[in-house]
Structures are given as C-alpha cells and as structure tokens.
C-alpha cells in the first residue's frame, strides 16, 4: 500500500498505525471499532489523546513524540475506552472525582491491553504494543491473566487508600510493592505476573497521561447512545468474524470472552424469587418458564398468591455505591410486582441494621420514591440475622446485596437466602445460593 504523501506527516503516521493494527494477527479483530466515529488530530499542545466514547482525538505534538509501538498503544487504548463504554458506565464516578475516574479506567484498560498482546512481537523481536510514558499499570489490580478488576473496584481501592492516609511518601507514588506503576513496566509488555509482593498503597491519585471526553459523552441523547452501543457491538462481532476468516485471533481470550453468550444477572435473581416465593396457585407469562424456552415453547411460570414477606438486605458499607443500589432496587421492584408479596422489608446495614423500611403490597410501587438508603461503615451481615431473630421476622426469602467482604462469616439463616455479590468472585458463601455480578453489568442493566 502506498500512502498519500500530500497528507501532513502526523496523518500519515496515524494512517500507517491503523494499517499496522489491522494487519496484526492479535489486534486486527479489534480494529472494526475504529469505524465507530472519527479519529482526528489536533494541534493543541495540551492534548495527549482522548475519546468521548465515539470519536478519538489525538494531540499532534504528543503522538509525534512516540515511537510506533507506543503510538499503536495510544490508539488501541483510546478505542478500548469506546468498546468498554467507560464514559457511560462510570459517569457517576466521574461526577464524584474526575481524575480518579480517569485513572481507574486507565489501570483496567492497560492491564487488559497488555495481557492481550502477550508475546505479540514485531519482526525485529520487539513488543508490537507498548504503553506511552506515563501509562498507568499495576499488577495488584489483576485477578488472573486476561482478567482485571473493573474500573469501579479500582476506583474504590485507591479512594480507600487515600482515605486511610498511609505513612508519608511521595504524592501519587506507591508506598510499597511492585516497582513499576506507569510507563514501561518490566514485565507488562509480556503480560506476565511478577512474584507476589505487598500491594501498593496510594497516598494520592496517580498522574495520568491522557484525558477523557466525559462532558461530550454526556451530551449524547438516549437514542444516540443506543445507536452507538449497537454500532460497537456490531463492530466487535465483525472483528470476531474477521479473525475467524483469516485464521488468526484463535487464542484471543479477550474477544472469546466478549462473544460468549451471557445470561443477564437479573434472570437468576428473578428465578430465585419465583422459586422460593412460588407455589402453584397462579401462573404468569410475564416471566416465561425457562425449562421450555430451549424448545421454543413459551410456558408461564408459577407463583403463589400467599407470599407473606420478602426481605431485601442491602449492604451499605463503603464499597457499595448509590447507583448500584438504585438499579438493584428497581429490578427488585419489578419482580415484586409479579410475585406480589404481602410485605417487602428493606434492611440497610453495615455493622448494624441502620434502617428498616416496610412496604405493604399496595406500597411496593412507591419504593423508589420512598426509600432512604442509610449506612456507610463496615460489613458484618450477622447484624441482619440477629435483627431478624430479635424482632421475630420470618420472611419467605432473603436476598442480600453485598460486596462479600464480611467480617464474621456468612451467618446462619432460617429462610432461603440468595447472595447477590458485587465485584468479588472470590466470595464463596457457605449457605444459600450465590449470584456473582460486576458493577459494570449492573450499570449496563440500568442504562
């Protein structure tokens, strides 16, 4: 291919960068995402690179200072924000603390990007993708190879570090642990895992090298946002077909994970409510019977008209944020409109039950307008079991919404219990059933 030499040099470099990414066996499956929006270059010297969730803007001065591998890293990084829909899902964090929200998204993306490119080398044996100087990277946010804590969990971890005010150290730098946290991590280009060391503790928000166009993203209408999501989904599926047709990308675990069929977290939640609160008194087509769906037969689910009380135990410790709580309660409200319990009790708790709200059947529709989430301390679910016992509350079922970091175990329950555990797949309750869900999955459901 011959490049148009009448174009400015920066544009020629960008064109070549995108061509290189589209030809590389590892990255080519992601390049259809580039078509969702435009990539432009600005001569504003203050700009490094950013996206508004649809378009990408690169700073000419910054991109011309990068070698080819780092420029590829920059372009891929900004488009990764688009694929992850970071600027929609994590907007509530940006409204609280813009810099920390940016940093949390970057830690997640850079970890995923470098894992995906493990062993992806140029013909000269050098990494095909590198982080620009200042690119944030920290092994402590890795769950396993190819899986990292999401931006919400990273945000809360750093926020808690700062709140705890660790021992004195340089602003924005880790106090202990792995030595490289930004730029060119010693093992990050290969996606390797270094030997276990003490996690870093941040005494201030790390510096970031890029910006994010949150303001522009917020100006998209609901219709425009839905259209963008459809474009992104279509682009990724096109990428999967592209990789398959060319015989490449077969070991692209990231794309494989994206393409896996997923059951929305609200379906197991509804199924638990129906099965534990359900008799055979009535049937409803509002929630089809899942046993027959695979046979293309739509049959109703059964539920009981004699559901006495359903308890929703809402963890209000530091790590559970208001947006997640709101989406969860909205989903539970719609479930209650189907199973029609005579009473819904919402218990807000941290190390004690700090608020007890009771809604009779005719009041359930007003839950979202009436409820007042309270709390914000530690996490001890035994306060809930004690509270139920002391007040002689005997619900037909209990659904616990929690981060799963419990001080004194999971407790002893006299009613069926479902644990809806957020951002903590290591949590393994020794009683009841468990539904693992991530913050991003919850907020996508909330739209």
Describe it for me?
- There is one protein chain.
- The protein has 447 residues and is an alpha/beta fold.
- It folds into 2 domains: 9-259, no CATH class; 266-446, Rossmann fold (3-Layer(aba) Sandwich), CATH 3.40.50.
- The chain is built from 16 helices and 13 strands.
- It has helices at residues 9-23, 60-64, 68-84, 86-89, 91-96, 98-116, 151-164, 214-218, 222-246, 253-259, 266-276, 290-293, 322-339, 367-370, 382-390, 439-446, and strands at 39-42, 49-51, 56-59, 142-144, 147-148, 282-288, 300-303, 309-315, 343-349, 353-360, 397-402, 417-422, 433-437.
- The two termini are 43 Å apart.
Characteristic terms for this protein:
Rossmann fold, alpha/beta, 447 residues, three-stranded mixed β-sheet, 2 domains
């Amino acid at each position: 291919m011959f490049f148009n030499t009448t174009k400015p040099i920066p544009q020629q470099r960008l064109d070549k960068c995108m061509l290189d990414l589209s030809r590389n066996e590892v990255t080519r499956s992601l390049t259809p995402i580039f078509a969702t929006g435009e990539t432009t270059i600005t001569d504003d010297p203050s700009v490094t690179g950013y996206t508004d969730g649809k378009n990408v803007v690169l700073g000419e001065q910054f991109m011309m200072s990068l070698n080819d591998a780092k420029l590829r890293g920059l372009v891929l990084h900004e488009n990764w924000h688009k694929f992850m829909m970071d600027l929609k899902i994590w907007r509530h964090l940006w409204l609280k603390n813009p810099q920390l929200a940016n940093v949390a998204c970057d830690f997640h993306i850079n970890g995923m990007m470098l894992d995906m490119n493990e062993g992806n080398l140029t013909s000269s044996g050098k990494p095909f993708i590198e982080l620009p100087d200042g690119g944030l990277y920290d092994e402590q946010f890795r769950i396993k190879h190819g899986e990292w804590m999401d931006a919400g969990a990273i945000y809360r971890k750093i926020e808690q570090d700062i709140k705890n005010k660790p021992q004195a150290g340089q602003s924005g730098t880790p106090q202990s642990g792995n030595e490289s946290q930004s730029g060119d991590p010693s093992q990050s280009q290969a996606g390797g895992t270094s030997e276990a060391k003490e996690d870093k503790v941040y005494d201030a928000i790390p510096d970031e090298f890029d910006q994010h166009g949150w303001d522009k993203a917020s100006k998209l209408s609901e219709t425009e946002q839905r259209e963008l999501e459809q474009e992104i989904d279509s682009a990724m599926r096109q990428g999967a077909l592209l990789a398959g047709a060319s015989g490449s990308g077969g070991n692209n675990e990231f794309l494989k994970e994206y393409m896996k069929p997923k059951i929305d977290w609200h379906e197991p939640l509804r199924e638990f409510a129906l099965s534990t609160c359900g008799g055979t008194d009535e049937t409803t087509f509002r929630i089809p019977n899942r046993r027959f769906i695979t046979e293309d037969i739509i049959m109703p689910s059964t539920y009981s008209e004699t559901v006495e009380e359903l308890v929703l135990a809402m963890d209000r410790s530091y790590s559970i944020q208001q947006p997640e709580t709101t989406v969860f309660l909205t989903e539970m409200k719609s479930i209650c409109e189907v199973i029609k319990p005579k009473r819904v009790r919402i218990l807000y708790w941290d190390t004690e039950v700090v608020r007890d709200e009771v809604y009779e059947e005719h009041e359930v529709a007003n839950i979202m307008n009436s409820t007042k989430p309270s709390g914000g301390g530690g996490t001890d679910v035994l306060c809930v079991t004690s509270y139920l016992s002391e007040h002689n509350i005997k619900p037909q079922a209990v659904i616990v919404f929690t981060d799963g970091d419990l001080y004194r175990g999971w407790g002893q329950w006299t009613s069926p219990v479902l644990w809806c555990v957020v951002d903590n797949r290591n949590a393994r309750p020794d009683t009841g059933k468990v539904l693992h869900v991530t913050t991003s999955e919850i907020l996508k459901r909330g739209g």
